[in-house]
Amino acid sequence: MAAQSGIVANEELRAKLAEAKQGSIRLIHMQIGDEQIQLRKVIPINGDWKSDFDKSIQPLLDPTNASYILYRLDSKNNLGYEWLLLTWIPNEAHVKQKTLYASTRNTFRRLFGEGYLADDILCHDKHDISLAGYEVHLACKKAPAPLTHAEAKAQEVASDQIVHASIDDGHSSMGGLAFGLTASSIRSVKDFADGKISYLQFVSSGL
């Protein structure tokens, strides 16, 4: 299958990719050479995916040469075991090599089958491709997306409107019991909002 870069996977690699989907292989290491994606190393399963991670992957990371790594997780989807595609492009790699691996990446995804991939990560630093780095990546994926400047401003305006509406009608906008505010209390709240005072204490006379 030709890639955007004109690179193809050789027959040995195609056969090994098909075998890998049966479940006995933990890792497949690949590099581009002679206008082909070539098989470099196959590692069988030894333990669970976490215990195999660093000891399988870290020794393969050449500081000057890029490579592709397929790593099998222990989780499954409707197709079978899920895999990570790790594209290792170190900062010290030649610019031409960086471009070649980046431009072939998507075609390799299609060759293997995108449905099998739980994640596809481009890595430039060894820490990024360690178990600790991958767990940070997973945590970031689960975290809510940061607000854009416009969203943050809109949220600030909405909150400000709620506060001013509560002060103007003399009632709290909090859930639960609502208590009326005296005129002096309203002035104190406004002074607090303006930073003129730093502490407020309210006492209800209705209980």
Automatic annotation (TrEMBL):
SUPFAM superfamilies: Actin depolymerizing proteins. InterPro entries: ADF-H, ADF-H/Gelsolin-like_dom_sf, Twinfilin. One of its GO terms (cellular component) is actin filament. Keywords: Actin-binding, Cytoplasm, Cytoskeleton, Repeat. Residues 5-139 form the ADF-H domain. One of its GO terms (biological process) is barbed-end actin filament capping. It comes from the Eukaryota. GO terms for molecular function: actin filament binding; actin monomer binding. The keyword rRNA-binding does not apply. It is found in: Cytoplasm, Cytoskeleton. Belongs to the actin-binding proteins ADF family. Twinfilin subfamily. Interacts with G-actin; ADP-actin form. This is ADF-H domain-containing protein.
